[in-house]
Specification:
By secondary structure, the chain is an alpha/beta fold. It contains 9 helices and 10 strands. It has helices at 40-47, 69-73, 91-101, 106-119, 135-147, 165-178, 191-197, 215-220, 226-234, and strands spanning 2-11, 14-24, 29-33, 55-60, 63-64, 76-79, 153-157, 183-187, 200-205, 208-213. The strands form 2 sheets. Strands 6-7-8-3-9-10 form a 6-stranded mixed sheet, sandwiched between helices. A 4-stranded antiparallel sheet has the order 2-1-4-5. Strand 1 and strand 2 form a beta hairpin. The protein is globular. It starts with a strand and ends with a helix.
């Protein structure tokens, strides 16, 4: 469902990502972790078609993201960290706008709007201007926009940012539920989120993949502590 094959992204002599290769199957919820500047955001932007790789191949659902971006992103829901939202719109207006932009029928928009309102706890927020919403409410609206067109692949950058403990618990449950039928790649700095939501971990450092395994396997590299394993593998001081 997600394929990265020898991906490289260079800015002059600087390699943001270098020979990155991994495959993620349907039904996997995978954490994408690494130190700041390790290449996580660059990789996610390449996978979503926002950036073109210097070399290598990125595919979503078997579709080459560079060669056929429009068809590839039909399969994708992407939640960037602090993703842009139209502040003067209400959540209902925003979701309707994105549904129409994706070519959904009025009936399909109404159906999906009901679904995302329930799943993302937007009751009471639909007709509130986004600019007046809290950070957590905006994050939930962004999550709803990601799910609106019922994508097969979800790529999320820090999906629990700005949420209170109850909302974090709701997002965890939602991600695990969605991961039963979809493929999810999520970036996070929070190890408790990795253990709560993910069955697999990809760890990158200096633009290269340095670990691919389960959370339990990662913890075993740090005497049972994921944080210690992270420091050991990345050489952080």
């Amino acid at each position: 469902m997600i394929e990265a094959i020898d991906l490289c992204k260079h800015y002059g002599s600087f390699a943001a990502i270098e020979n990155l290769t991994f495959t993620i199957r349907r039904g996997e919820v995978v954490a994408f972790i690494g130190p700041n500047g390790a290449g996580k955001s660059t990789t996610m932007k390449v996978l979503t078609g926002y950036l073109a790789p210097t070399s290598g191949t990125a595919r979503l659902c078997g579709i080459d993201v560079v060669q056929d971006r429009a068809r590839a992103v039909e399969k994708l829901g992407y939640l960037p960290e602090n993703g842009p939202l139209y502040q003067d719109m209400t959540a209902r207006e925003l979701l309707t706008f994105f549904g129409e932009a994706r070519g959904l029928s009025k009936a399909r928009i109404a159906e999906r709007l009901e679904f995302v309102t329930q799943e993302c706890a937007l009751q009471g927020l639909l007709d509130k201007p986004i600019g007046t919403c809290s950070k957590g409410q905006k994050q939930r609206t962004g999550m709803a926009q990601v799910l609106l067109h019922d994508p097969d692949v979800l790529i999320m950058d820090e999906p629990t940012t700005g949420l209170d403990p109850n909302q974090i618990r709701h997002v965890r449950e939602l991600v695990k539920k969605l991961g039963q039928t979809r493929t999810i790649l999520l970036s996070t700095h929070l190890f408790q989120e990795v253990e709560a939501m993910c069955g697999r971990v990809l760890l990158v450092h200096d633009g290269r993949l340095v670990f691919d395994g389960t959370p339990a396997e990662l913890k075993s590299r740090g005497a049972g502590q994921m944080e210690q394993a992270f420091h050991t593998i990345t050489g952080a001081r």
